[in-house]
Amino acid sequence: MADIKYEIKETMGILSESPKGWKKEVNLISWNDNAPKFDIRDWDPEHKKMGKGVTLTNEELKKLRDVLNEMEL
Amino acid sequence: MADIKYEIKETMGILSESPKGWKKEVNLISWNDNAPKFDIRDWDPEHKKMGKGVTLTNEELKKLRDVLNEMEL
To answer: What integer pLDDT is reported at residue B3 of this predicted model?
Structure first.
């Protein structure tokens, strides 16, 4: 992971926090200086280590919102 | 990945499809015969190969829904 450059532009929300302080976050992230994308993944408290996650376009995030709104949660 | 057992119990929605037929899906998946969890990731057309993704609890999915509903998409 050391050679991936990333910059968290904005944090939209925190979905959960583990006992060790890792948080599942929804962020807007620029990877390798590219245009920022939405991203859902786990992060350590300093945002230095990350877990696996998904990157989503604006269009995919809209669809995701619609899918979640149709579910009974 | 060959030794991970998974069973897709339900597909809640498709967020996008690539030219090669991979789809970003929201599924309810049982991993290694454990209780099913929600999951967002890319899948090949046969659901045999998968990309990286996130697994979410019911509680995390609710929070995600609330976060997305507060955003202007």
So the answer is: 76
- 3-state SS of chain A is CCCCCEEEEEEEEEEEECCCCCEEEEEEEEECCCCCEEEEEEECCCCCCEEEEEEECHHHHHHHHHHHHHCCC
Domains and CATH numbers, chain B: 6-70 (2.30.31.70)
How confident is residue A4, by pLDDT bands cut at 50, 70 and 90?
A: confident
Kindly state whether A24 is in contact with chain B, defined as any CB-CB distance less than 8 angstroms. yes
Instruction: Please indicate whether, in this complex, the C-beta atoms of A52 and B52 are within 8 angstroms of each other.
Output: yes
The CA distance from B61 to the nearest CA of chain A, in Å, is: 8
ipTM: 0.93
Q: What is the mean pLDDT of chain A?
A: 95
